[in-house]
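re: ur question from earlier - yeah i can do the single chain one, its not a big deal. heres the input i used so u can compare w yours
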Amino acid sequence: MIASVTRGDLIDLTYEGHIAVSDADGKLLYSQGDPTRLTFARSSTKPFQAATAILSGAVDAYGIDEEEIALMCGSHTGTPQHLHVLTRLMDKASLTEDLLQCGAHAPFDRAARKALSSPPSALHNNCSAKHAGMLMSAKYMKEDLSTYTDLHHPHQQRITHLLSELCDAPLDLFRYGIDGCGVPVHALPLHMFATAFARLSRPDSLRPDLRDALLRVAAAMRTFPVMVSGNGFICTMLMEHFSDRLVAKGGANAFYAVSLPKQGWGLVIKVESGTASLLPGILLYALKDLGVIEDHEMDPFRSMMQEEIKNHRGDVVGRTRYHIDLQVKR
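and the output i got, formated as tokens:
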């Protein structure tokens, strides 16, 4: 059990989950639950998809700047600021909105959603900058743009092969699905994704071009954290408060990944129920358990952690408790 919710003196809800912490050599250091659990990383792989675009040569060929790289790594919240950077990125590569195959949804940002005077477009999709990066790469490589979301498209194959390299995962170990935005999504054992995130900030042992691409991605995310999600959202807040200590990227259905540059570790979390509201508390207590942060540094995140359950009158009627017990692996 990774978390529980009480109501009165009764444990009302329980949640199972898994945590894996690996180093850049692929060694599993700490875990809770099953670190081999086969898991879709969902949008947490966006930093590596952005690195693939850098490796293709497209990012430099089209003059994509650091803020735009950060947006490519992100699940943006559809604010005017995000759309401005996205439009700038697409204009540099002469990409038009009709090329995006991510679909449309309303902005995650409440004010941006309320301000909409017409139906949302593909630009508002939180994955639109990732798709722009894929299109840009395919265009630069003179590949078909109409099939860029297909698993067998050359650019999707480049992404898969890069994940194979970063995760130390043979290609026959991968399982595939289709993500919410229509592109292939990859499943691997949890601890392998932890290795990839360790290498995001500690890529010393990797080939030079990949090392440089990952360092550019990590630097962009830490320099422009608001591009990675948005104001008041967990990824952005983590990198605003702990910019020298971590790089963070969440994925749908309660997957979360953090790169810890000082330690050279990657930490990944999966909650079985997909209850994403538990992730801030699980992550922060795990970071505290690992000595990355201290207790008082969790204070800005307390409302997200929902440690007190209140009713509509404001009475405290229950509590969320986080059961973090990372075991050392030898």
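The longest strand covers residues 17-23. not sure if urs matches, ping me
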